[in-house]
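Late entry, written up from scratch paper. The run itself happened at the end of the previous shift, but nothing got recorded in the book at the time, so transcribing now.
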Amino acid sequence: MLAVFDIDGVVADVRHRLHHLDRPKSWPAFFAAADQDPLLPEGARLVADLAHEHEIVWLTGRPAWLRDTTADWLARFDLPGTELHLRPARDHRPARQFKVEVLRRLARRTVAAFVDDDPEVISAATAAGFPAVLADWVPRAASLRDAQERFGRT
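Output as recorded:
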């Protein structure tokens, strides 16, 4: 059984790079700083707890070209799980659509839990029949909501 986790806002604290999403937006600068994200201890504890009985899978709206950076970041903080799903190039659908599609593909292995910081993603996952938990330990910035839902960038 799988425990599926988002990264940004769940285990990675992106607040230090949100200023890149102000006007004018700089997606390259926003993503270039991803390797500097601090670890969110609340998310790390939940991952560790669920890893005792579940295979950990990572599902992020980060672009696929950040695969190595993201994998290195997860390894640096000793977070379990090596399966990593990222947003394909030129896929700018809202996060809720992208992530529910991936959850449906993962469902053949049974998704026991899905954790994300986006209430719209959680609502869509729940509506699709997945057990979903909102990571609410970091206040969600409007710029991040727009990046996930309006621009389909993370």
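The chain has a mean pLDDT of 94.
(Scratch paper discarded after transcription.)
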